Amino acid sequence: MALSIKNSEVICFYDLQYRWTKRSTQNFVEVCIELNEFPEGQMIIAICPRVFRPDMVEEVIEEGRKLGWDPESIAEPFNVRLTKRGVSLPRK
After folding, report:
1. HSE (CB half, 13 Å, CA atoms) of 44?
2. Taking the C-alpha atoms of 1, 73, 16 and 5 in order, what is their torsion angle to the nearest 10 degrees?
């Protein structure tokens, strides 16, 4: 499902535009990111610290791609966790 244009922001990272949005809970911030030109593509969902800064979006994009996130493919959302140590796959 594509992110709402009204409630999201666009970031340009390595000449590609990504659309992202965040949702705060009591314990963490959930950030959803998709490729702006291909909203049908795979979305990355990152669980981030409660103290969230917009520059963290770039780290999620870069490290998520290294871990296997492919926003140009049609697939289930790719889930990651952002901590002080970086971006990692969630524990199972």
Report:
1. 33
2. -10
91, HSE (Cβ side, Cα atoms, 13 Å):
1
pLDDT tens readout for residues 66-92: 999 999 999 999 999 999 889 999 876
C-alpha to C-alpha distance for 2 and 23, rounded to whole angstroms: 15
What is the rounded CA–CA span in Å between residue 25 and residue 37? Answer: 29
Give me the count of residues in the chain: 92
**Spatial separation of the C-alpha atoms in residues 65 and 85, rounded to whole Å:** 17
Asked whether the whole model's pTM tops 0.85, one would answer: yes
